[in-house]
Design goal:
This protein is of the alpha/beta class. It has 5 helices and 5 strands. Strands 2-1-3-4-5 form a 5-stranded parallel sheet, sandwiched between helices. Helix 4 links the parallel strand 4 and strand 5 (about 115). The longest helix is centred in the last third of the chain and has 18 residues, at about 120-140.
């Protein structure tokens, strides 16, 4: 995998965060993984404000977005990302345990690139993460992001 790419994981559950880290390690995904734990922190990260005001560098190459987040929900984070020219082209994969069909529909209407339900079984989860990394970080061609 292209290890110079950054993945932003927006996840409030420490167990799911750890499973994601382990799945990346097992899958050989060596990309930098930045983690934020609520919707407000996610927006701060992406806008380089608040506790992330000193963050250097541009946008992440991929966002893994949980839906059930404190402060600002995942769908609202997605809506705000897609409303901003600077962040509207970042691939966003909703990675959630939500089984609500309305979440799938709303996620796509708001501009997510993919919607994946978190498998309960770790081996299945690791396989999903490996496939996700291969597709979004290696195979997928992304547009060049415009400079501000």
């Amino acid at each position: 995998m292209k290890s110079d790419h950054t993945i932003l994981l927006i996840e409030d559950n420490p167990d799911d965060e750890e499973l994601t880290r382990l799945a990346f390690q097992e899958s050989g995904i060596a990309n930098r993984l930045e983690i934020v734990r609520d919707g407000a922190e996610a927006l701060d990260y992406l806008n380089a404000t608040g506790s992330w005001a000193d963050r250097a560098g541009g946008n992440p190459n991929l966002i893994l977005l949980d839906l059930k987040l404190p402060k600002i929900g995942g769908l609202e984070v997605l809506r705000r990302l897609r409303a901003e020219p600077r962040t509207q082209l970042i691939p966003v994969v909703i990675l959630t345990s939500s089984v609500e069909e309305q979440d799938v529909t709303r996620g796509y209407k708001l501009g997510c690139n993919s919607y994946i339900r978190k498998p309960v079984d770790f081996d299945q989860f690791a396989e999903a993460v490996r496939n996700l990394g291969t597709y979004w970080l290696v195979l997928n061609e992304q547009p060049m992001m415009e400079k501000e």
